[in-house]
Amino acid sequence: MNGFADQLPQSAISSDATQGLFPLPLSPFEQYMVQDDTNSYPMSFVLILKLNGNLNREAFEQSVDFALKRHPLLMSHVAQVRGKGLCWIPVTSPTPQVAWEEHGEPRKLPEQEKIDLATEIGLRVWVDRRPTVAELVFQFHHACTDGLGGVQFIGDLLACYGLKTAPEGAELPEIEPVCFERLLARTNYSHVESEAPPKTVSCPMMLSKRLMKLLRRQPAPLAATRKNSIGTPLEFPAIISRMIDRHTLQQLKVVAARKSVELNDLYLLEMFQTIRTWNLQNGKNRDNQWLRIGMPTSLRTPLHDQMPAANIVSYMFLTRRSSDCNQPDDLLADIHRQTSAIVNQQQGRFVAIGLKYMLKIPGLLWCLLRMNRCFTSVILTNVGDIRRQFTARFPLKQGRCVAGNVTLDVLTGAVPVRPNTRLSTSVGTYAGNLYVNMHCDPLSFTKEQAEQLADIFVTKLKQLIPADIAEERRAA
Questions:
Q1: Could you tell me if 306 and 271 are in contact, meaning their C-beta atoms sit under 8 angstroms apart?
Q2: Which CA distances in Å does 239 have to 46, 242, 277?
Q3: Which residues of 321-332 are buried (b: 16+ CB within 10 A; e: fewer)?
Q4: Which range is least confidently modeled, 12-16, 234-238, 306-310?
Q5: Which of 127, 156, 163, 437 could bond 426 through an S-S bridge, CB–CB 3.0 to 4.6 Å?
Q6: Is 343 left (phi over 0), alpha (psi -120 to 50) or beta?
Q7: What span, in angstroms and rounded, lies between the C-alpha atoms of 275 and 180?
Q8: What does the alpha-carbon distance between residue 167 and residue 391 come to, in Å, rounded to a whole number?
Q9: Which residues contact 214 (CB under 8 A, 6 or more apart)?
C-alpha cells in the first residue's frame, strides 16, 4: 500500500528504540511464569480469532513482523546474565512459527506444546485459511505477556494488516505509539508497598500470614473424570466456547442491578455453583470442603500507558465452603463485599510483592510450585469488552472490527491450567455478545466432559434470570 509507513507512529518502526534496555532482568512475576513451566502443564495461553474475508498471506506475515517490532519481550529469549540473573535477550531476526493450513486441512499440532524461551521466542501462530473465512490461533508464553498484552499485540497486527489491505478510500485503522522504556515500570512496586501494611506490621510478616491462611484452607479440585471414561481426547488448544446473546446479557445486567452487585459477581457465584454441581455429580463433594476461585487482576496504572505487551497481572483468591452454595443470595452478597475490597484496596498487588520476597529465598518458590496439592479449584478471568482492550482503533461494521479486507468475527481464549487447577474460564464481550471460554485440562477431561462443564456454567447463568425479566424480553 502506498504511503503505508507514513501512517505509522515513528516509535513503531524505529530499529534502535530498545537500545539500552537489554539485557532486561525478569520481573518476579515473569520468573514465577518461567519456574512454573513444565512439559505437562506449559505456561502458555492461546487466543483464537475468527475472521470473515479472504486473508492475504503476504500481508499477514508482514503484519506479524511489524507487530513483533512493537513488542520486544515477544521477540526475546531468556538467558542467565552474570550479575543480573535471568534476563530478556532480544533476538536480532526473530522467526515465529507460523503454520498454514489451507481449505480445512487438519491443524498441525505442536510437537511439544511447551515453548522453550531459551531457544525460541514466546509466540507461535497457526492459520487455517479458506476462501471467505480464516481461523488464527496465537500461542503466547505467559512470561512474555498477560492476556491483555496478547490482545494488544493482535490489535497491532490487525491494524497493520488493515492498512495494507484496505480498499482505496476506505476508513483505516489507527495505530497508537508505544514507549519501550515503559517496560521498566513493570517491576516498580514501590508505590504498592507504601500502601500495603500498617507501620506496626512488616510487609513480609503480613504476606506470610496471608500465605499460611491460603495453605491452611486447601481447596478441593474440580473432579477429574477422564481416567475411567470413553470419549474424545481434548487436543490443543483445548478450549470450549459458548456465546450468550446480547439480549440475555442485558437481562443478566438487570439482575445484577436489582441485586446491587456487579455482573462479574454473578459470574463468580455461578462458577462456585458449577464446581459444586460437577463434584456432586462425580461423587467428589463434601459440604465442609473449601472451594477456591483464582481471579487474575491487572496491575496496570497510568505508569504503563503505551507500554508494549508484558505481564502486569496478579491474582486474588475467593475461598468459600461448598455448603455456602446452599444460600446463593448470602454467597453473592459476600462475593460482592470481597470483590469491592479487591478493587478499592488494590489487594491484588500483594501477590506481586509476595513473589519478590519469596525469590529472596533460593528454592522456596520452586518447592511451593512442586507441592502435590491443589492451590486453586478453578481460574475465572473477566476481560470485559474485547474491543476496548485493543490500543489500535478500528472502523466498525455491526460492532465488529474491520481490518482492511477482513472483519474480526470473534476473539476467544483462556489462561493456562495447572496441576490440580483443572479449569480456567475467560468471559468477555464482543459486538454486544458474551463469550464464555473454558480451557480444560486434557489430562483430566474428555472433550465431551468439557462440553458438559461449559453447559452447566452457561445454564446456571441463564437460570439467574427471573420470569418477569424474561417476560419483558418476550413482550418486546
A1: no
A2: 9, 10, 21
A3: bbebbeeeeebb
A4: 12-16
A5: 437
A6: alpha
A7: 42
A8: 23
A9: 317, 319, 375
Percent of the chain residues topping a pLDDT of 90: 70
Of 137, 320, 306, nearest in space to 219 by CA: 320
Closest CA relative to residue 229, chosen from 441, 444, 462: 444
Angstrom distance (rounded) from CA 208 to CA 186: 23
Q: How confident is the model at residue 150 (pLDDT cuts 50, 70, 90)?
A: very high
Q: Name the DSSP letter for residue 219.
A: B
Q: How many CB atoms are located within 10 Å of the residue 182 CB?
A: 15
Cell 520468573 sits at which residue?
31
Among 86, 166, 95, smallest CA distance to 395 is for: 166
Give the chain's largest Cα–Cα span: 70
Closest by alpha carbon to 298, among 129, 152, 88, 458? 152
* pTM, 2 dp: 0.92
**Least confident stretch, 189-193, 281-285, 385-389, 412-416:** 189-193
3-state secondary structure of 104: coil
Question: Phi/psi at 113 (nearest 5 deg)?
Answer: -65, -30
pLDDT given for residue 206 in this prediction: 65
Residue type, 258: R
